[in-house]
């Protein structure tokens, strides 16, 4: 088949990582893959992977920018003539459907959207917009249940969980290198990985760090990522007297190794879908502590981490401190996490599930017929 993947960003987020993993897996299975997206750091993931790269300008979220993106995507569809256009998240689904129509190819390529989640108050609007796609793949059963309840027809939605490739354990040499660079000196380390944006609620993480520091003064905290709230979070860290304990790493290409180095990966989020960073933590045996949000609640039900009621961060801090003080619980969660990823979140399984869905959509459109 010919699959055109499109995403509004190629930054270092989890949805973008799903796109590159999927592209690599589809090419390995013999499909022709094109990627239409702005240029970004994730392009490095696809170096050496044969695919067509169609550059979309990042023109922001203004009406003019949306129209321009639609026209550029329509041109990419007209040139590549895909069997399926696969978009990431809500607005990209709308743009992709409009572009697929504007491209003027007949029959029109089917549009698949992957839904990674939105704020709770936005579900009804998201359901209306996602109706523009021919089908929607939700990355967790929590998201699937909620978006259908909000009005998306159940027959046009299905569950395909995110997945990751398994990495080798962190070597002692690499661990020592990270410790030297980030001045950890073997200290118990708590990390948070993600863009510094309102969704991730880093303010709550700073409060949690203060609680942990009171009972475990030697603990160190890593804030991995960049975003518009960095200055605000830096001021909060200074005001809390944590400047000597909290390290802002900025954007890191080795975030997965930093996760493996940490004793705990934290999510202080207002909402999540199915986080790739969380899956990477579980795959490396790093326990996860998260606020009680959809996606994370489902992921950690197996015992691979802990869910904490939403508050200002105090409860999150107390749970992190308790986990750092209990090596037996850490070991139990570590083992459960690795087993869960190997069993339920294999990369091969995710690619195969999308491949089957593509075949169904393309066959229904009359654009493609499976070979006997």
Detailed description of the structure:
It is a single chain. By secondary structure, the chain is of the alpha/beta class. The chain folds into 2 domains: 2-163 and 346-365, Rossmann fold (3-Layer(aba) Sandwich), CATH 3.40.50.2000; 172-344, Rossmann fold (3-Layer(aba) Sandwich), CATH 3.40.50. It contains 14 helices and 13 strands. The protein has a 7-stranded parallel β-sheet, with helices on both faces.
Indicate the topology.
Elements: E1 2-6, H1 14-28, E2 32-37, E3 52-55, H2 63-80, E4 84-88, H3 90-102, E5 110-115, H4 123-130, E6 135-138, H5 141-149, E7 157-159, H6 172-182, E8 189-193, H7 202-215, E9 220-224, H8 230-239, E10 246-250, H9 255-261, E11 264-267, H10 276-284, E12 288-291, H11 296-299, E13 305-308, H12 314-324, H13 327-344, H14 347-365
Parallel strand pairs: 1-2, 1-4, 2-3, 4-5, 5-6, 6-7, 8-9, 8-11, 9-10, 11-12, 12-13
> Looking at the structure, what is the overall shape?
elongated
Specify Rg, calculated over alpha carbons. Answer: 21 Å
Looking at the structure, the CATH topology of the largest domain is Rossmann fold
- Strand order within the widest beta sheet: 3-2-1-4-5-6-7
The CATH homologous superfamily of the largest domain is termed Glycogen Phosphorylase B
CATH architecture of the largest domain: 3-Layer(aba) Sandwich
As a percent range, the share of strand residues is 15-25%
Average pLDDT number? 92
Derived structural class: alpha/beta
CATH C-level name of the largest domain: Alpha Beta
Distance between the termini: 14 Å
| Strand elements, count | 13
H/E series = EHEEHEHEHEHEHEHEHEHEHEHEHHH
The helicity comes to 40-55%
Q: Output the number of helix runs.
A: 14
Number of domains: 2
Give the biggest beta sheet.
Answer: 7 strands, parallel
Give unreliable regions as ranges: none
